[in-house]
Amino acid sequence: MDDISARELADGVFVSQQYLSRVFTEFMNCSVYEYLTNYRINKAKELLLINSRRKVQDIASDVGYSDASHFIVMFRKLTGMTPAQFRKLYI
C-alpha cells in the first residue's frame, strides 16, 4: 500500500540504489519498478475478485496508487483490460 521507491528499498537493505537495481535486474529479470508494478497489479486482481463491491478507486489506493486514473492505465497496460472489465469477466 505504501508508495515505496527503489531508494527506500536500497536504504532498507543498506546498499546503493545502483547496486540494488543491478542485482535485482540480474536475479529477477526486471527492474525494481517493473516488479513493484506487477506485484501491485496482481494484488489488485485478487482484491477485485475477492471484494466485488469495493470501488476501483479504493482498490487502487489499497495497492499503493494515489491516483485511480494512473492505476487504471497501468492495469490496462499489463492486462489488456480495465479493472472493471477484468472484474466483469471473472465474476
Q: Could you tell me the strand content as a percent range?
A: under 5%
Q: Based on CA inertia axes, which overall geometry fits? A: elongated
Instruction: Report the strand count.
Output: 0
| Cα end-to-end separation | 24 Å
What gyration radius follows from the Cα positions, in whole Å?
15 Å
Element pattern in H and E = HHHHHH
Q: Oligomeric form of this entry? A: single chain
Unreliable segments of 5+ consecutive residues: none
Report helical residue fraction. over 70%
**Sheet of most strands:** none
Alpha-beta classification = mainly alpha
**How confident overall, as mean pLDDT?**
94
Gist?
The chain is mainly alpha-helical and 91 residues long.
Report what the structure shows.
- With 91 residues, the protein is mainly alpha-helical.
- It has 6 helices and no strands.
- The chain is elongated and about 45 Å long.
- The two termini are 24 Å apart.
Topology (SSEs and partners):
Layout: H1 6-12, H2 17-28, H3 32-50, H4 56-62, H5 68-79, H6 83-90
Helix pairs in contact: 1-2, 3-6, 4-5
Q: Features of this protein?
A:
single chain; 91 residues; mainly alpha; 6 helices; elongated
